[in-house]
Amino acid sequence: MAASDHDPSRPLHLDAKQDADRVVVLTPEDEDRFVRSCAWVVEATKLGISRDVWLRELHGLLSHVRAWAQKHSRLVKRAYATHRDAQVAIYVVPQAGRFDFDLSEKVTELDLEVAEKFQACPCDVLQMPDKPLAELEQLTGNHLAILIYGDGSAAQSQVAP
Amino acid sequence: MATAAQHRAKWLHNRAFLATIDDAFADWMATVMFYTALHAVETLFAHDGTHVHGGHGPRNQTLKTYNRYKQVWKHYRPLFDAARTTRYEADANEWIAVQDVKSRLASDLYRVEASVVKLTNQPLELARLWP
Fold first, then answer.
1. Measured between CB atoms, does B98 come within 8 Å of chain A?
2. How confident is the model at residue A153 (pLDDT cuts 50, 70, 90)?
3. Would you give the DSSP letter of residue B129?
4. What is the 3-state secondary structure (H, E, C) of chain A?
5. Any idea what DSSP says for residue B60?
6. Comparing A14-28, A103-117, A142-156, B67-81, which segment has the lowest mean pLDDT?
7. What pairs with residue A126 in β-bridges?
8. Cβ–Cβ pairs < 8 A, chains A and B
9. Which residue in chain B has the smallest CA separation from A120?
10. Residue B100: its chain A contacts at CB < 8 A?
11. Secondary structure element (H or E) that encloses residue B85, with its range
């Protein structure tokens, strides 16, 4: 460490190369003790930054899809977000009540837009039949976590916590 | 890992089966159509030396991320979408009509195949599945 532990005017500098084997002791306000290697601290910091970026992008993605669904409300009845295969899955329920080829072209445009704009948050966008939540969960093999767009009076009240 | 020739053989094998499926099975038509496209895509990946580890998710991300594959993705995505739901959907034949499968969805398959033929620069005569 390059700085005194008790000089608040100077930063504590850990160097991943020079201090790789040094032990860092962190003392939180509850007087607990965390003994970690410098390398661990560096990796944990990277992970924290990655998580922040991912959460920011997820929020942006959901907002983007909601705006898209509002723009195409003539074709879109509802939109859900969940996770599948370690990535986000967006399910769009067509107003048509069946697979809608006109909507499919719009979905492809949306899919490419979000792939380019939210690269830290990969997702696929698919059409989905309008069904009771339990059946949708069975169909997707997952719990539908978020209703992004549409009338949730019937569906949202059933959404699992 | 299968070679481009092996994927191409599977692509043509699935395609031959596709033409034999009865109109009562639009769900299976959509499913086989998707797996025909999938092996066409894998033929392209093998040709390019593009290694994709994992299932549909990583494959889809590769297709939509690289400019070389974006045109393929535009027509592969509807096949993935339609097949995914029809595979698990109880009323699959109500979700997608057989006429739409044989015209509009087939059109997406033809475009995927045409892109793959062009990008691999390997001439391949592919007849239309239905007149």
1. no
2. low
3. S
4. CCCCCCCCCCCCCCCCCCCCCCEEEECCCCCCCEEEEHHHHHHHHHHHHHHHHHHHHHHHHHHHHHHHHHHCCCCEEEEEEEEECCEEEEEEEECCCCCCHHHHHHHHHHHHHHHHHCCCCCEEEEECCCCCHHHHHHHHCCCCCEEEEECCCCCHHHCCC
5. H
6. A142-156
7. A91
8. 61
9. B61
10. 99, 101
11. helix B67-88
| CA-based nearest residue in chain B for residue A94 | B95
Token pair in block for residue B109: 């398959």
pTM for this prediction: 0.82
Closest CA to A121 of A79, A28, A45, A59: A59
Q: Cα B22 to the chain's mean position, in Å?
A: 19
Beta-carbon count within 10 A of A153 CB: 7
Q: Report CB contact under 8 Å: A127, B60.
A: no
Tally of CA atoms within 13 A in the half-sphere of A93 that contains its CB = 20
Q: How far apart are CA B55 and CA A37, in angstroms?
A: 36
B6 in the Ramachandran plot: left (φ > 0), alpha (ψ -120 to 50) or beta? alpha
Q: Average pLDDT in the B101-121 region?
A: 96
Spatial separation of the C-alpha atoms in residues A51 and A46, rounded to whole Å: 9
| Residue whose pair of structure tokens reads 């969940």 in the numeric block | A82
At residue B45, the 3 state secondary structure works out as helix
Show residues of chain B in contact with A128, CB under 8 Å: 85
Q: Is B57 on the interface with A (CB under 8 A)?
A: yes
Backbone angle region of A47, left / alpha / beta, with phi > 0 → left and psi within -120 to 50 → alpha: alpha
Q: What are the tens digits of pLDDT across the range A28-85?
A: 888 888 888 888 888 888 888 888 899 999 999 999 999 999 999 999 999 999 887 7
**Rounded Cα gap, residues B92 and B71, in angstroms:** 28
Instruction: Please tell me if residue B76 touches chain A, with a CB cutoff of 8 Å.
Output: no
What are the tokens at B87? 């595979």
Contacts of B61 in chain A (CB under 8 A): 87, 115, 122
